[in-house]
Amino acid sequence: QVHLVASGGGSVQAGGSLRLSCAAYGSLTGYYNMAWFRQAPGQEREGVACSSARRINYADSVKGRFTISQDNPQRTMYLQMNSLKPEDTGMYFCALGWGLDGSLVRSDFGYWGQGTQVTVSS
Question: Looking at residue 33, what is its pLDDT?
Answer without folding.
Answer: 92
